[in-house]
Write a structure and sequence with these properties.
Length: 259
Amino acid sequence: MIRSLLTAATGMEAQQLNIDTIANNLANVNTTAFKRSRANFHDLLYQTLRAPGQSATTGTVVPSGIQIGTGTKLSSVDKMFTEGAIQVTGNELDLMIEGDGFFRIQKDDGEIAYTRDGHFSRDNGGRVVTADGYPLIPEIIIPQGSQDFHVGYDGTVTVKIAGETQEIGQILLADFINPTGLVSLGGNYNAPSRSSGEAVVGVPNQNGMGRLGHQQLESSNVNIVEEMVNMITGQRAYEINSKVIQTGDQMLQTTTNIR
């Protein structure tokens, strides 16, 4: 068996996963606060026919060996937590995090999820909730009849009631030592893992936490031009590996035709 057939097959499989990653990035180009993913690869084990530094028959040491690689595989898919562009919406319940941090959301099962998506609404009880109805933690309840809802850089929430400004809550953010280690749950939600570390909760605009932008949203950080270039590169790499398999097949066919 020609080893190039199996080697090229690993290359095709790796590029397929690369294209899958790029496709998800492009599909979420308009998803609020979406963070693009990057596929990383590493080479596989090598078949050593002659080890580097091996002694030659004349007593000398060979300057280089003979090692034949066996292909590549996907090593990781990393989230790129670079900040997306600022989108000014004018909606009083839209928030964005300028810098590091995540909003804390309580799901139906009581678990805390983390998101950068600051597109909030209010439910029938006046609570500030996500599009799925999950409340922001700690809860912010907007009194009925209040006006001029405002969120400061430090997360202080104020409204006007009967012409007087009143503070009704404090938004806190969470951050992680390794955000790339978060588990993506879908719906713009993330969960901590052993790789991400425990959540560190703090006040916005203090101790390294990002500050809050009111009536703004964070756009996706997907760069369409960059993704298109990556897609073309991945497609061509897939085609080249398929050509290697075709060449290997032709070599086997030539061998079987020898009489």
